Task: structure prediction
Amino acid sequence: MFDWQHYREVIDQFGPSSVIDVLLIAALIYGALRVMSGTRAMTQLRGAVILFLVAVLLGRAFDLTVVNYIVENSLPALLIAVVIIFQPEIRRALDRLGRTGLRGLLSRPDASEVLDAISRAAGELSRARHGALMVIERGTGLRDVIDTGVPIDARVTPELLEGIFFPNSPLHDMAVVIRDDRVVAAGCVLPLADQLPPEESHLGTRHRAALGITEHTDAVSIVVSEETGGISVAVDGRLTHVADEQRLRTVLEWLVQRRGALRREREREPVP
Result:
């Protein structure tokens, strides 16, 4: 039976300082989840939470003395484990906090500059006929793909992308993965599409990889043909050819910004 008097006393003690305390903890948790979103750390965190909840439920249900003791006294060890396991994510969060402040930690960077840089780089690579493959991460995390490449963690700029895909450079044959406003990794290996449409059967491995990653995730791929200099965009397992960097910019804006905004609006709509 609930002790209503006890809960009433707790509520009576809830003052302005308690509100600040709760909001601060909520902001820290939200910021941590945004930083870990789409990474292997989120999967590890989910597994740790499930394991902890199972231990708590079993301990309470069967009155397991040892399990209950470990759960009740494991907080210091858990804090140390979190620091060790999530060290890369903590470093990235502190770096973003130092560069952009609290607002940059709690919100995603503006995609306009990133899309401009990608479009300009694709245009220059197209004119020079340098093959390229760039993947923009959206909702689905690409950590498995990122782990196959070389870590970069640098701001997206046309110069950086053009340098990576310069002929005979060590990383020019594989893919670049872009998350938010950062080039996360280069030289990444992508899964190949099972088969190309009949009208696209002449395309090579680079285009098959661009299609393959979009068949398994919601990522957007931009591919520049080394033979023709043509620019194409792959999404949802379909390949669309674009005429130039201006058209590419328009397509990317729709896919990355407007389509994401529409999806978030639909998620906020009440279910009838």
Summary: The chain has two domains: 4-106, 111-268. The domain at 111-268 is CATH 3.40.1700.10 (YojJ-like (1). The mean pLDDT is 82.
